[in-house]
């Protein structure tokens, strides 16, 4: 458990252990999410990444991509076919 004090401007210094846990760096953005009577703080970049992962779930299998080489090959083909002369 960590404790922080709110300044007169409503600012809070996030304790170092929490910043490290959430992988927060200078300039990072955080989300405050209400869950019942509690507030959860999350790294907004991680939330965005999780949403992207959820959106792409099953796509690799659907496209027959099994290895990193398969992905590289698909990107090269896409770039080749998508280029305008």
Describe the protein's architecture and organization:
By secondary structure, this protein is of the alpha+beta class. The protein is 45% helix and 14% strand. The chain contains four helices and two strands. It has helices at residues 16-21, 44-55, 59-63, 68-82; strands at residues 30-35, 38-43. It has a two-stranded antiparallel sheet with strand order 1-2.
- Tell me the Rg in angstroms: 20 Å
The largest β sheet comes out as:
2 strands, antiparallel
Approximate strand percentage: 5-15%
Please give the share of residues in helix. Answer: 40-55%
Residue-averaged pLDDT: 90
Task: Give structural attributes.
85 residues, alpha+beta, two-stranded antiparallel sheet, elongated
Sequence-ordered SSE layout with sheet pairings:
Blueprint (H helix, E strand, L loop, with lengths): L15 H6 L8 E6 L2 E6 H12 L3 H5 L4 H15 L3
Antiparallel strand pairs: 1-2
Would you kindly provide a brief summary of this structure?
The protein is α+β, with helices and mostly antiparallel strands. The chain is 45% helix and 14% strand. The chain has helices spanning 16-21, 44-55, 59-63, 68-82; strands spanning 30-35, 38-43.
């Amino acid at each position: 458990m960590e404790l922080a004090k709110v300044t007169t401007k409503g600012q809070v210094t996030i304790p170092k252990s929490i910043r490290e846990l959430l992988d927060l760096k200078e300039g990072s953005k955080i989300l405050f999410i209400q869950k019942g009577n509690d507030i959860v703080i999350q790294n907004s970049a991680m939330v965005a990444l999780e949403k992207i992962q959820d959106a792409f779930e099953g796509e690799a299998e659907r496209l027959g991509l099994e290895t990193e080489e398969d992905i590289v090959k698909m990107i090269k083909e896409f770039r080749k076919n998508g280029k305008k002369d």
